[in-house]
Design brief:
Oligomer: heterohexamer
Number of helices of chain A: 21
Distance between the termini of chain A: 25 Å
Bound molecules: sodium ion
Number of strands of chain C: 0
Strand content of chain C: under 5%
């Protein structure tokens, strides 16, 4: 078995406590190890992506227990893609934090980053619904810590809302999981898929409730309307690099929706088109609300934050089609918008760090240091985010429009909101960067502790370069992503990889084990023995 | 018995929802606590109810009666621990916000009064 | 005979719990309520033990120990709060 | 030498016995493990309990416990009677100040605990200088008698045990 | 040279100014010019082939999945436009070198200009409409940068935004149109689309596609009613105006209409939309231009008018009109660019562009005056200049056009437009250059140096040459381009000066004469014009955008108003709605399980739980009381777990309960002790209804679940059967936790550890940030007694600690087989230590702590991880456990399981996390408790300094314990 | 012999139940916080104690498993109950008891709970008490 699959979880899970244990007081070592860890994660993710694109879904049985009795990790194209995206973002963010000095403004930044990676990677890899909850919590709690990194009134108040909102989400998650388990008797996603497919009609009511509530949980993470409320204040008040990292957080929700509603509750199956019926209107309204927010926001951070909501809406419009083509387009747009949002948050942070007391308000302040370069990057980021050519946002939108042909209202929404976003970004950018030249007063004093601004710019530029690469190599990228979509819409490969022979092997292990422990006082365990003998009779209820 | 448990879960949920809709952090935290009780019992009850059949081998009251479903229990244990960690963080966070802001309102004000 | 005694005892402690509850709901001051909570923990331990006898299982004793311990700590914590505000000084 | 490996023999014994009670398995394994714990835990917790008291009169403890047990039973009956049959307006609650001769904190604590556990009395407070206990009586027509009984029945014995 | 390379060259060239600008502006301009020149050269190498009717192609796959490919082609139309773009580009680059001052960032200018040039060349050479879209939008973006080039000018910023908004709008509409068009045609390649005329025009989506595409073309080419952005784009430096807003970019819309002419034109829809729009634009633009005093504004509206003219011609859908359109495109590019550059020279020299302040310049700057006069006469349509020829062709076409049955309408409008056109052209000459020399120019002008007038002079030469010998100098090009426009097979009639006394000539004469009359009566007309109310497009646009922004702001901040209650209300509402809706879409089977009987004790428990819950809600304003009540709920819940066969849960619940209570009390110390009633009765009522709905929903859900069996065999049967055999433990829950689903637990202990780290980090932030001062200033807000460390508690906790630790060890060890385990044990030990903190205080206890809690947490997470990773050495997956039975001499057999190592990790993590978290809270309290900052400095952190504190505080009793001084003295004497 | 154990166990159970009930009844019946403190702390200890002993005997006599866990629990309750009561009494002294009804202890100091510490000045305490009284009204 290929142990590398678990490495994206275990590596940060070891690194983080080691940083706490040995390097608590040594920022330099923390930085070295953090960057090394992130780099290793990138390398790992690349290797896993290569593996996933040549092999089918690969299964890693934790504790050597067969599914559904133990927890399995499953590596397929989609999870490999998410791992890669996460680690690239993580690396950029860590570099930026070091360059901007954010990491030294509070405790445990680097260990929390590693824990954050552990949580996100875990969520992307797991093949078990409850384990998904656990890793959601890991990534959430790490994100709480990162969000409030270095404190301050506004940040803490926004932090309270962020945490409380997500606590409500976690509660809903448990209600949903409980419902699903209570109907199906299993938590493994592949096993669930099998069982849901042959679910007796009498159970569909409750099952649908479980599926519907679960959708909402993911909608909370993805910040889909009406669950988007937590996002603007959180992203605006979080430290810049953290907000950039959070670009992937909404995608965790998106990932979960894509995964669960192609694998476990496929559209048109037992539960009908439940997912689409919920998702499509939510996505459209998110897109509208988000882009209106881009225009209506009075602070640059919020401009970007709302564009994240809008972009999630955009990609969900594609995913909610539940077709292979649209999913491919959605995946492309997801990769693009993650990088674009992260880049924009870093740029916004560059601005904030240099505008001193003026903060991010969309008002003219005398030109900041490196204004030209920052303005250029903002221009590029905004173009990408608004979906203007030539950057990947345009291509993504084009693909989504192409895949949703015939739904004219949807085209209208996408195109009109694009215009609103263009106007919004244009206003923000021209006020902050251009009107600045007309503003009176001295150049604002930048924050002192940027140890190496070059690194910060490199990290930001790197993300923009990523967007450019995504544009230039759109052909091969979409080919890969379309194959990913194809894999998602042939879930049998996933299910087979996890479940074929699993019950038989599991119960065979039981009988094999009886001999090796024959010397044990078995008489005190008579009830267990009873179960052992009669249970194998009905293992494969899902087949 | 099922009716008692279900109604208790429902009432605790209702109490929790009411409290999280308040305007100060403290009642909201209390509401979260109520909700987590409710969800824990909910999750636990998804394994169906059983009296004196703890999933401890060889300790069942009547050996033929079997055991109650251990999976939800394990899940609830995990959930309890996680929600404890979360509660600790949210309590500390709301305290920090209170100290910084001088009040414990949970609202931010329109776009944080900007 | 033991069965009836158990019935009686369980009934007593259940009733006791309700009395405690009354004192929690209706009390002039807060100390009474903490006291009622403390008593509840003690009555709960008794019920636990009685339940153990009823079901013939000794599996609940650890719970009893823990209840005793936590009941005590809770009372002390609440008491210290009433006394000083800051429970860890 | 023995002192070095067994700095708190009473505690070690107590912990070993408690372990056996807990484990409820009276086997060699349990005994060995219990002893091990009995040695290790006092060593770990030593900083948290500096100045562990020296018990001077071991048999005295047994006698004291017996007396207290008996008094608890008596007290419960007495209190039950008061609760059930004495109307509230007939109740004569009283505050009694008990000046202390005991020195050891542990001894004072035991005394205060004993007072609380026995009939109708309850240690409410210690004076700031540690000289006196403030005892509340549920129904004490004769407060001075209560004070004298406490000093005679419990404090004297505790002084023998601890000091 | 490959067409792709021709399009790419300007982009590559755009990189140069950034590098070269340090070596000087001339080098930069030279490099930029060289790039354009190179591209032009490459292009012209293909001229012979294209003239022969060949199409040069280059194809690259970019995004084959949706048919977006980098396909380029050079045909006649592309050749013409590309030549114009690159040729005029070179002239503009030269002109700009002298126009820009030293203060202007010339490097940026050339970068933007070349970006624009590349985008423009890309548009005209694209053989793929999606690729064309990319370039199309790029021109919008680069023009945004160029218009806003002078960042300090508000007009520049506003003009840039307006241009971006309007052309962006068009671009988006065009995206939709192109997607539809490509879909009808089955390909996005233009060369393919152009062959699909029948299919396209027959498609029901033809009209939507047409409108959407025209939306792009009209906005770009400033057609009515989108014409208003163009004059405001004149805030750009003049070279930009000359290049983008007269010669090239605004012609992109025309190009597009010409490009798709073969497949889109010829239908009534096309005619009525395009021709009408063109005609109206022509008229309106000309009329407004006459009354503009700003030279550039006049030229801008004139451009609008001429663009309308060309649009009108294209809209007619006839081949002759197409020829006229192509010809006028060339002519307009030459005279209008020359005019803009002249206006720029005037501005540059006199420092004003206001016609009212000018006049008489022909004496001071004869060269400029000559150039401007020739170009303006061409614009007016005076014979011998090229403008005359194409205008004649237009009037000829107009004369034969019947609009909705009215034969007189189009000719009439055309004549009026031409008349205005003549008038403003004359005004440009007369008011600018004729008349007496004034003495009040803002700056005394003279002719600029050679470099600045070279470019317009060159264009004016073309104006004259084409005007004189059209078939020699323009004929082949017009033939080539027009042939491409009409889709081949064009037999062009020669362009002649004299066709006899045609209606066109008459109309032309009327126009010229009328123009002169208009100019003569200009002053009264101008007064009338200024007196008349007229819609100010910019004001309307600004109003609309401001309204939109305002509404957007209102929606955004109204929706996201920071009210958590509303956010959570929406959350709840949506959850209930989706739950009910989802349920109603499925079926619900009847009950299949027998219910358990309700025992009296259970009923009592239920009553208590419900009462306590109700009281929490009713009394939640009294926070302390609410905590007590919550503890009761917790107690009952844990008893409920015991009753329902979940001892592990009960133990965990109750021990978590107590730690939570301590935590909440620590926080409540600072927080207000009561919650004021702030919500209105209405809100309370609504919240109550919502909560009850939510409660009913969840209650009904769990009831419905409990009355039915699992639809399939639950997986836990396997766990029950194999917990002992394969997991080595009797406590199935524990075996699940540490073995079957140990990975969950791994995540869970991590969560706990992270929580503690977060709390610690937050504490540090509060202690070292602005909060620190607030903390020091904080004063207790409740009654406080005097006894910090009550003696009885002190003694009791000291006695209890060893026993509690023993109990912890016991619970840890038995967990695998009986209720217990690492988590509960960890909590027990933590609670035992918390008791020490409560009794003896933070400093005293902390000083006795031998291990930092950070270390415990890290070791816990690591221990769990290492146990899990240990399996790798056996070649097994992460977290694979093993167990065995061992025997030591003298002892009985005992079991050892690797899962215990995992549980140990959990144990350590829990102890460390709980204590680190509580410690954080109490450190805040310590900071608050001191009256002066000095003592605050001694707060013990998880830092090496803690050891020093430990050394200091070796006293047996913490400060503040009520110990008799007498005894202390006595003890001191004893020692 | 079994009958003897049965009677013993039953008696203990009845006694336990009785005292448990009386303790909680006292909590309801007695007139003021100080007197209420007496009832449960004592009655309940005997109540639980009797039940615990009954349980111990029951398992030894009828289930053949001598467990002494119950002793542990009893020990624990007996050790902790006075402390809880003490704390609540102190809280009562601070909040619910008129200070003038108490005699001051002999010697220099006052009762511990009334001795102000360095961290809170007398005025502050007074202010807080004032505020708390307002709150109560
Ligand atoms: Na767990
Ligand atoms: Na356990």
């Amino acid at each position: 078995m290929d142990h590398w699959i678990v490495a994206p979880v275990v590596l940060p899970a070891f690194l983080a406590p080691l940083i706490v244990l040995w390097m608590r007081f040594d920022l330099r070592s923390q930085r070295v190890f953090s960057v090394a860890g992130m780099t290793a994660l990138v390398a790992l993710a690349i290797a896993l992506a290569v593996s996933a694109s040549t092999n089918g879904p690969e299964v890693y049985r934790l504790g050597n227990w067969e599914a559904p009795f133990g927890i399995v990790l499953v590596l397929d194209r989609l999870s490999a893609l998410m791992l890669l995206l996460t680690s690239v973002l993580g690396l950029a963010v860590v570099l930026y934090s070091i360059g901007s000095g954010w990491d030294k403004r509070g405790w445990h930044f680097h260990s929390l980053m590693q824990f954050q990676m552990m949580g996100i990677n875990g969520a992307f890899l797991t093949g078990d619904a409850f384990n998904l909850f656990v890793f959601f919590e890991v990534l959430l709690i790490a994100s709480y810590g990162l969000m409030i990194h270095s404190g301050g009134e506004a940040r803490l108040k926004a932090g309270v809302q962020y945490v409380v909102y997500n606590l409500a989400g976690s509660t809903l998650f448990l209600f949903a999981l409980g419902t699903i388990y209570s109907v199906t008797g299993t938590l493994n996603m592949a096993d669930l898929a099998q069982k849901v497919a042959v679910m007796p009609a009498s159970e569909t009511g409750l099952l649908r409730v479980g599926a519907g509530l679960l959708m909402l949980v993911f909608a909370v993470k993805a910040a889909l309307v009406p669950f988007q409320f937590w996002l603007p204040a959180t992203y605006t008040n979080a430290p810049g690099p953290v907000a950039a990292l959070f670009a992937i957080m909404t995608k965790v929700g998106v990932y979960a929706i894509v995964r669960i509603y192609t694998l476990v509750f496929p559209a048109g199956g037992t539960i009908g088109w439940l997912a689409q019926e919920v998702l499509l209107p939510a996505a459209a309204i998110s897109l509208i609300i988000g882009m209106i927010g881009v225009l209506g926001a009075r602070d640059m951070g919020r401009t970007v934050a709302y564009s994240v909501i809008g972009s999630v809406g955009t990609m969900m419009l594609a995913f909610a089609q539940f077709t292979e083509g649209a999913t491919g387009a959605g995946l492309y747009y997801m990769v693009h918008s993650t990088l674009a949002a992260a880049a924009l948050f870093l740029i916004v942070d560059l601005v904030r760090e240099r505008r001193g007391a003026a903060g991010l308000a969309i008002t003219p302040v005398p030109p900041i240091r490196n204004a030209g370069l920052i303005a250029g990057m903002f221009f590029a980021g905004a173009i990408a985010m608004a979906g203007m050519p030539p950057l990947s946002g345009f291509i993504g939108k084009l693909m989504i429009l192409d895949a949703t042909r015939g739904q004219w209202w949807l085209w209208g929404v996408v195109l009109v909101t694009s215009l609103i976003a263009i106007v919004g970004f244009g206003r923000a950018g021209s006020t902050v960067f251009w009107k600045a030249h007309a503003a009176a007063g001295d150049q604002p004093e930048p924050t002192k502790d940027a140890s190496s601004p070059g690194l910060a710019f490199t990290a930001t530029g790197g993300l923009i370069a990523g967007l450019v690469a995504l544009t230039v190599f759109a052909g091969p990228t979409t080919a890969w992503l379309n194959a990913t979509a194809q894999q998602l819409y042939t879930p049998s490969a996933y299910i087979d990889a996890v479940m074929v022979g699993a019950y038989e092997r599991a119960w065979a292990a039981t009988s094999g084990h009886e001999d090796s422990h024959a010397d044990e006082p078995a008489e005190s365990h008579a009830p267990a023995e009873d179960h052992g003998t009669d249970a194998p009779a009905e293992p494969a209820s899902g087949y | 018995m099922e009716a008692l448990v279900a109604s208790a879960v429902g009432i605790m949920t209702a109490a929790g929802i009411y409290l999280i809709l308040r305007l100060r952090t403290f009642p909201v935290v209390l509401g979260m606590a109520m909700l987590s009780y409710a969800v824990n019992i909910f999750l636990f009850a998804t394994g169906r109810l059983a009296v004196n059949l703890p999933p401890i081998l060889g300790h069942a009251g009547a050996e033929t009666a079997g055991y109650t479903d251990p999976i939800p229990q394990a899940l609830v244990l995990t959930a309890i621990v996680i929600s404890f960690g979360m509660t600790a963080v949210v309590v500390m966070l709301s305290l920090g916000a209170f100290i910084e802001a001088g009040d414990d309102r949970i609202d931010l004000g329109p776009e944080e009064k900007k | 005979m033991i069965t009836y005694a158990l019935y009686f005892s369980i009934g007593c402690f259940a009733l006791a719990l309700l009395f405690n509850l009354y004192r929690v709901v209706r009390a002039p001051g807060v100390t009474d309520r903490v006291l009622a909570l403390d008593t509840m923990a003690v009555d709960a331990i008794a019920l636990l033990v009685l339940f153990g006898i009823w079901e013939g299982t000794a599996i609940f004793f650890e719970a009893s120990i823990l209840y005793a311990m936590t009941g005590f700590v809770a009372t002390v914590a609440y008491g210290k709060f009433l006394l000083r505000g800051d429970i860890i000084e | 030498m023995l002192k070095r490996f067994l700095p708190h023999p009473h505690l070690t014994l107590l912990l070993t016995v408690v372990w056996l009670l807990l484990a409820n398995a009276y086997t060699i394994n349990s005994l060995v493990f219990g002893l091990l714990m009995g040695l290790v835990i006092p060593w770990i917790t030593a900083p948290y309990w500096p100045d562990r008291p020296v018990i001077r009169n071991f048999p005295g403890i047994v006698e004291y416990i017996a007396i207290v047990m008996w008094d608890i039973i008596k007290s419960n009956i007495a209190v039950a009677k008061i609760v059930l049959f004495v109307p509230n307006d007939k109740l004569r609650p009283a505050w009694v100040t008990v000046p202390l001769d005991l020195h050891e904190p542990e001894a004072i604590t035991v005394l205060a605990g004993t007072i609380t556990m026995t009939p109708g009395t309850l240690t409410a407070e210690l004076s700031a200088d540690g000289h006196s206990l403030l005892v509340h009586c549920l129904h004490a027509p004769d407060p001075d008698g209560v004070r004298d009984e406490i000093k005679e029945r419990y404090e004297r014995r505790l002084k023998e045990i601890f000091e | 040279m490959s067409p792709a390379l021709i399009a790419a060259l300007p982009f590559l060239g755009a990189l140069l100014p950034g590098i070269l600008i340090r070596t000087g502006r001339s080098n930069t301009a030279f490099a930029a010019g060289l790039t354009s020149g190179l591209a032009l050269l490459g292009l012209l190498l293909h001229l012979p082939a294209v003239m022969r009717g060949e199409v040069v192609q280059a194809r690259f796959e970019w995004l084959p999945a949706i048919g977006l490919n980098a396909n380029f082609m050079i045909d006649g139309l592309g050749m013409l436009f590309a030549t114009l773009i690159l040729g005029i580009g070179i002239l503009i680059i030269i002109y700009a070198r002298f126009y820009l001052t030293k203060a202007d960032p010339a490097g940026q200018f050339y970068t933007y200009l070349l970006l624009f040039q590349g985008a423009m060349v890309g548009i005209v050479l694209s053989d793929n409409i999606l690729l064309l879209l990319v370039f199309w939008e790029l021109t919008s973006l680069s023009s945004f940068l160029l218009i806003g080039f002078w960042k300090h000018l508000p007009e520049g910023r506003q003009g840039a935004r307006m241009a971006l908004t309007v052309t962006g709008l068009g671009g988006l509409s065009m995206i939709a149109g192109m997607l539809i068009l490509g879909n009808i045609a089955g390909s996005y390649d233009i060369s393919v689309i152009l062959t699909q005329k029948a299919a396209i025009q027959a498609s029901p989506l033809y009209l939507p596609a047409l409108i959407l595409i025209l939306g792009g073309a009209f906005t770009k080419s400033a057609q009515f009613p989108f014409h208003f952005w163009l004059p405001h784009a004149m805030a750009a430096p003049t070279p930009v105006s000359a290049y983008l807003h007269s010669a090239t970019m605004v012609k992109a819309g025309l190009f597009l209409m010409a490009r798709l002419w073969p497949v889109l034109s010829g239908t009534p829809e096309w005619f009525y939309i395009v021709a009408t729009t063109g005609l109206i634009t022509m008229l309106i633009g000309a009329k407004i231009a006459l009354f503009k005093d700003d030279l550039k504004a006049l030229l801008a509206f004139s451009t609008v008018s001429h663009l309308g003219l060309i649009t009108f011609l294209l809209g007619l859908g006839t081949k002759t009109a197409a020829v006229a359109a192509v010809f006028h495109i060339i002519n307009h590019a030459t005279f209008k660019a020359a005019l803009f550059m002249s206006a720029g020279i005037v501005d540059h020299e006199t420092h004003t562009r206001d016609l009212k302040r000018l006049g008489g310049l022909r004496h001071l700057m004869p060269v400029t005056a000559t150039i401007a006069t020739i170009a303006a006469l061409s614009m007016a349509g005076i014979p011998l200049f090229n403008g005359f020829l194409s205008k004649e062709l237009m009037l000829e076409e107009a004369a034969h056009t019947v609009w909705a049955g009215a034969a007189w309408l189009v000719p009439l409008v055309a004549v009026i437009a031409a008349l205005f056109s003549a008038a403003y052209s004359f005004r440009f000459i007369v008011h600018g250059f004729f008349g007496p020399v004034r003495d009040d120019y803002p700056h005394k002008p003279h002719d600029p140096n050679f470099g600045m007038w070279l470019s317009p002079a060159f264009l004016v030469v073309l104006v004259v040459l084409i005007g004189l010998m059209p078939m020699t100098f323009a004929g082949p090009v017009v033939q080539m381009a027009a042939d491409a426009v009409v889709g081949g097979g064009l037999h062009m009639h020669p362009i002649k000066h004299w066709h006899g006394l045609t209606p066109a000539l008459v109309m032309s004469m009327i126009a010229t004469a009328g123009g002169i009359v208009l100019l003569l009566s200009f002053a009264p007309l101008k007064r009338m014009w200024e007196a008349a109310p007229r819609p100010e497009a910019k004001a309307i646009f600004d109003w609309i955008v401001a309204r939109c922004a305002c509404v957007a702001s209102w929606i955004t901040s109204g929706l996201h108003n920071g009210s958590m209650a509303r956010y959570l209300m929406m959350f709840t509402l949506a959850s209930i709605a989706v739950g009910v809706w989802a349920w109603s879409g499925g079926t619900q089977g009847p009950a299949t399980r027998e219910m358990l009987p309700i025992t009296p004790v259970a009923l009592v428990g239920w009553v208590m739980l419900i009462t306590a819950t109700g009281c929490v809600v009713a009394f939640h304003h009294n926070r302390f009381l609410a905590l007590v009540l919550i503890s009761i709920v917790g107690l009952i819940v844990s008893i409920c777990f015991i009753y329902l066969s979940a001892p592990d849960l009960a133990l965990t619940q109750i021990s978590v309960e107590i730690v939570t209570a301590v935590l909440m009390l620590l926080a409540l110390n600072f927080l207000p002790k009561t919650t004021k009633i702030e919500s209105s009765r209405l809100k309370q009522g609504f919240d109550a209804v919502l909560s009850i709905a939510g409660g009913l929903g969840i209650g009904a859900l769990i009831y419905a679940l409990m009355v039915r069996d699992f639809a399939f065999e639950t997986m836990s049967n396997y766990h029950l059967a194999n917990s002992y055999k394969l997991g080595g433990g009797d406590n199935v829950v524990n075996v699940i936790l540490v073995d079957f689903r140990g990975y969950d637990t791994y995540g869970e202990v991590t969560v706990l550890g992270i929580a503690a780290l977060v709390i610690f980090a937050l504490t540090e932030a509060l202690l070292n940030g602005t909060a620190s001062k607030k903390l020091i200033a904080w004063r207790p807000d409740m009654l406080r007694g005097g006894d910090k460390h009550p003696l009885m508690l002190l003694v009791a906790t000291r006695v209890l600690l060893p026993i509690a630790l023993l109990v912890g060890v016991f619970i840890f060890l038995r967990g695998h087989n009986l209720p217990g385990g690492g988590f509960i044990a960890g909590l027990v030990v933590a609670i035992a230590l918390v008791m020490q903190y409560m009794a003896s205080g933070f400093a005293w206890t902390q000083a006795r702590q031998k291990v930092y809690y950070h270390v415990l947490i890290a070791c816990g997470v690591l221990a769990a991880g290492i146990t899990g990773a240990g399996a790798w050495f056996n070649g097994m997956p992460f977290l694979t456990s093993d167990f065995g039975y061992f025997k030591l001499p003298g002892l009985e057999k005992f079991e050892l399981a690797t899962a215990a190592g995992f549980d140990l990790g959990v144990f350590l993590g829990v102890v460390g996390s709980v204590l680190l978290a509580l410690g954080g809270l109490s450190r805040l309290a310590r900071r608050a408790a001191v009256l002066d900052e000095e003592r605050g400095a001694h707060i013990v952190a998880e830092k090496p300094e803690a050891r020093e504190v430990a050394a200091v505080s070796s006293v047996a009793y913490p400060e503040g314990t009520p110990l008799p001084r007498r005894w202390l003295k006595a003890r001191g004497e004893e020692q | 012999m079994d009958l003897f154990w049965e009677i013993l166990i039953s008696a203990l159970l009845v006694i336990g139940g009785f005292f448990g009930l009386v303790g909680s009844f006292g909590l309801v019946k007695l007139p003021d916080p100080m007197t209420r403190l007496h009832a449960p702390t004592k009655a309940a200890t005997l109540g639980v104690g009797a039940v615990l002993i009954a349980s111990m005997i029951y398992f030894a006599a009828f289930r053949d498993s001598l467990t002494l866990h119950e002793l542990m629990i009893t020990l624990f309750i007996f050790l902790t109950a006075p402390i809880s009561a003490h704390f609540l009494a102190k809280a009562n002294l601070l909040r619910n008891v008129d200070r003038t009804t108490l005699t001051r202890p002999e010697g220099e100091g006052d009762w511990a709970v009334f001795t102000p510490l360095s961290d809170t000045s007398a005025e502050e305490l007074e202010e807080a008490a004032e505020a708390e009284r307002d709150e109560a009204r």
